[in-house]
Specification:
This protein is α/β, with parallel strands linked by helices. It has two domains: about 10-65 and about 175-355, QueA-like; about 70-160, Thrombin, subunit H (Beta Barrel). The protein is built from eight helices and 17 strands. A hairpin with a 6-residue loop joins β1 and β2. The protein is globular and about 60 Å long.
Length: about 350
């Protein structure tokens, strides 16, 4: 079956600004859940998710932990600087070197030391680019290589701010520190939360366990590129940002057992989808270490692992809209979005969730 030649405009929709959630629901599992697995949408509360799954299904979570990646400081001249740490570089001992976005009225010279709030310094070592094919722009935007005067993870934890998405208009608070993080986060490195997993609380997890619904985890450190706009009408010309992911041996084995018993693999969020489908394409069966992915899932993509997906509602014309359209069918997804807007579902990171099933080819 030929895939239509979709353009960027095919993933656009009008969203009332007041549907962009600025704060989470009072309780994690009190958010709404739209069941989009059938021909017609059905409204639920998220705590009812276990009713929609089957004994023997396997939920795959992204266990990344959001770091307080937004840091403030000043140049020697007194000019203000803001850093958003995109990645802490590999290390054997304490981690001192990072890759970061930088906001400043005038960029400092290579070798300059920035005086950061908290009393540490960040020395600019130069520009940084993740590997890109010749002639392709860096999908992450302009990145800079810094060396901190102390352990980057400790300094961010003590002096950093929660890197809230650009569409959340308030400064980070104690509520964000608690709620812009999943209850099972354990591997620090993300600068955006795997938001579909924010709805899970201990009561829902216990209900899933009691019903014989299995759990496994991957790690994908979500980068700022997840919010980057698509700037070309032709989807084939868009270059995805790079993110580090890991599908450990235990999860690979859990997927194999799920297949053997006839269960379904349920990815919690688009980051879990990207991890699992990147792993399937890589052919890696060791799971000894992670690697980078720039997978761009759009209509026409052949899914190899994921059967169902739990996901939040995404930005118009985003790569995430393209991913879920590839998964559940473009017309079906756009119909669900029209319904969600009419029923005043809450959108984006702190918004409500949806359950989708992979379109059968």
């Amino acid at each position: 079956m030929n895939t239509p030649a979709y353009t960027l405009a095919d993933f656009d929709f009008a969203l009332p600004e007041d549907l962009i959630a600025q704060h989470p629901a009072p309780q994690r599992s009190a958010s709404r859940l739209l069941d989009g697995t059938g021909p017609h949408p059905v409204d639920h509360i998220f705590r009812e998710l276990p009713d929609l799954l089957r004994t023997g299904d396997l939920l795959v979570f992204n266990d990344t932990q959001v770091i307080k990646a937004r840091l403030f400081g000043e140049k020697a001249s007194g000019g203000k600087v803001e850093l958003l740490v995109e990645r802490v570089l590999p290390h054997d001992g304490p981690a001192f070197e990072v890759v970061a976005h930088m906001k400043a009225s005038k960029k400092p010279a290579v070798g300059a030391s920035l005086h950061m709030v908290g009393g540490f310094t960040a020395t600019l070592l130069g520009r940084w680019s993740f590997d890109q094919p010749q002639g392709m722009p860096d999908a992450q935007g302009t990145l800079f290589h810094f060396r901190f005067s102390g352990d980057a993870y400790l300094l961010m934890e003590r002096h950093g701010h929660v890197p809230l998405p650009p569409y959340i208009t308030h400064a980070d608070t104690a509520e964000d520190e608690a709620r812009y993080q999943t209850v099972f986060a354990r591997n620090p490195g993300a600068i955006a939360a795997p938001t579909a997993a924010l709805h899970f609380d201990e009561a829902v997890l216990a209900d899933l366990d009691a019903r014989g619904i299995q759990r496994a985890s991957v790690t994908l450190h979500v980068g700022a590129g997840t919010f980057a706009p698509v700037k070309t009408d032709k989807l084939d010309e868009h270059r995805m940002h790079s993110e580090w992911y890991h599908v450990p041996p235990a999860t690979q084995q859990a997927i194999a057992r799920c297949r053997q018993r006839g269960g379904r693999v349920v990815a919690v969020g688009t980051t879990s989808v990207r991890s699992l489908e990147s792993w399937a394409l890589s052919g890696d069966t060791s799971g000894d270490q992670g690697q980078d992915t720039q997978i761009f899932i759009r209509p026409g993509f052949e899914f190899r692992v994921v059967d169902l997906m739990i996901t939040n509602f995404h930005l118009p014309k985003s790569t995430l809209m393209m991913l879920i359209s590839a998964f559940a069918g473009h017309a079906h997804v756009m119909g669900l979005y029209r319904y969600a807007i009419a029923q005043r579902y809450r959108f984006f990171s702190y918004g409500d969730a949806m359950l989708l099933e992979r379109t059968k080819s």
